[in-house]
Amino acid sequence: MAPVESPDTAAGADEAGLAALRELVAASDDRFRMRPEPGPVQEARTLTVGMATYDDYDGVYFTVTSLLLHHAEVMDRVNILVVDNHPSGPHSWSLKRLEQDVPRLRYVPYDRRVGTAARDRIFREAVSDWVLCVDSHVQLAPGALAALVDHIDERPDSGDLIQGPLVSPDGSEVSTHWEPRWGQLMYGVWGTDPRGTDPGAPPSEIGMQGLGLFACRTTAWPGLNPAFAGHGAEEGHLHEKFRRAGHTTWCLPALRWTHRFDRPRTGRANSTWYQSLFNYLIGFDELGQSPDEALDHFSAVLGERAVRQGMADYQAEKRNPFNAFDGITCINLDERPDRWEALRRRLGALGIRPERIHRQPATATPADHRIGRALSHRQAIQQAHTDGLESLLVVEDDALFLPDSASVLRQALRELADRRWSLLHLGAPDSEPVPACAEGNHSLQAVPAGSDVTALAIAHHRSAFTHLLDELPDTVEDMSAWIQRHTSLDRYLARWDRPDRFRTVPAIATETRQFDLVAERLHGQSSHRCAAAGEGALR
């Protein structure tokens, strides 16, 4: 593997230059703006109407207002949930203030993944038996919500997917489903079944439809692939998952809705054909489906050369061992945007796409950095647990990856494949680097209790989520007392006495101040061939 390169600006700049760099990065990356906190958990009701939004306060406002004005007869059985997919953006505080005006509305900031797949979070935050998921610019026809509530009352334990007809603004056109064919780089074309055009008609089975509006029982939700990003690929894919679970998709004719398609005044979450193609390929792989029709369609529209390159990039990403983890979360202090920029480039040099990397603002506790560090790790684990991830890689912003990181991790994951595991340490502790090699051609080593370990770069399996969340307090006050008992997160992990805890051998990550020593000891190579940037941040 070629040396991992990263900018050395931060390491060589004087204080004035470093301050200028921080200002530049902060000005270009709004992830460093203050974000609202989530609202209190709602009381359980029959139905949650949830919407995921990206800089669309106007759409949310009119959707919520329409619910209150035109569906008052059932709103006592309904919660409203707004998932803000750009919580550091310009619309966030206005969205948050809706909680003051609408007592049954809850605001949840969420940017672990950005795009239409963020709607998955609605189902994981809802406390109701059923969820109606709508785009943040959809309005329901009068009586539509009551019709859905009646349907739920008649079939409370159903595991089916419920949708309704899309109606044009003047009511002259009614579209009941999507035909399963390709058009305009999307799988699915609107169609009309006469059985669904009469609001008084009974539900009729459909194969698929657009996902501007759909409902299901909360516990029947099959989830969306955590690798989805940007826009596209959920339509048809979600319907197939319901089908394979033994359920049916229905068009409920009375559940009529309109959709605002134009949005000239505001920006949107960035999405491209390239990202959409990746999403389709991810979905096909998940369900064991052939990508041939998609590749033919994309090639006909964009040309074979571009699509061949996209397919080659996707195959390379599948081979990248870092993408074996469902999520990659990077912990970074808001006052250190330069460190985030350096880490993002280092991870990019490892072949990790920006869409796969989630920046989590670290909890700042200047009086004792150990408290904030442990709280930050807990928050990352809590997000992964809520999202239903199988695994999570947490990387602190001073982590440096050594040469051959990918090959070592790839071999370690092969050895881990048939084993039960809870934690996988990728980093070397600053007090005692791990052994430079293991016996034979092995890259995985069990970690005995009492061994020095570090949480600098650590992968968590879902089997460890609940235990860690139970053990790690969630407030500064409680964590302060916890640190007094355990000294630090690293020392707590060192005392874990579990046979399912492992580390890569050699270590593939270290922090800046130990970089030269570990690089030479473990790899016998001079440090100029490796990534170098940053200073100890969360320590």
Q: Give the structural class.
A: alpha/beta
* Spatial arrangement of strands, main beta sheet: 16-15-17-21-19-22-20
Mean pLDDT, rounded to whole units?
A: 88
Shape: globular
* Radius of gyration over all CA atoms, rounded: 25 Å
Q: Could you please describe the fold and organization of this structure?
A:
The protein is α/β, with parallel strands linked by helices and 539 residues long. Helix 8 packs across helix 10 and helix 9 crosses helix 10. The longest helix has 19 residues. The N terminus and C terminus are likely disordered.
Secondary structure elements and pairings:
Blueprint: H1 9-12, H2 15-28, E1 47-53, H3 57-70, E2 78-84, H4 92-101, E3 105-109, H5 120-125, E4 130-134, E5 138-140, H6 144-154, E6 161-163, E7 166-167, E8 174-175, E9 177-183, E10 186-191, E11 204-205, E12 213-217, H7 237-244, E13 249-251, E14 257-259, H8 273-287, H9 292-302, H10 304-319, E15 327-332, H11 337-349, E16 357-361, H12 369-387, E17 391-396, E18 399-401, H13 405-416, E19 423-425, E20 444-446, E21 457-461, H14 462-471, H15 476-486, H16 489-494, E22 501-504, E23 509-511, H17 515-523
Parallel strand pairs: 1-2, 1-4, 2-3, 6-13, 15-16, 15-17, 19-22
Antiparallel strand pairs: 4-12, 5-14, 7-8, 9-10, 11-13, 17-21, 18-23, 19-21, 20-22
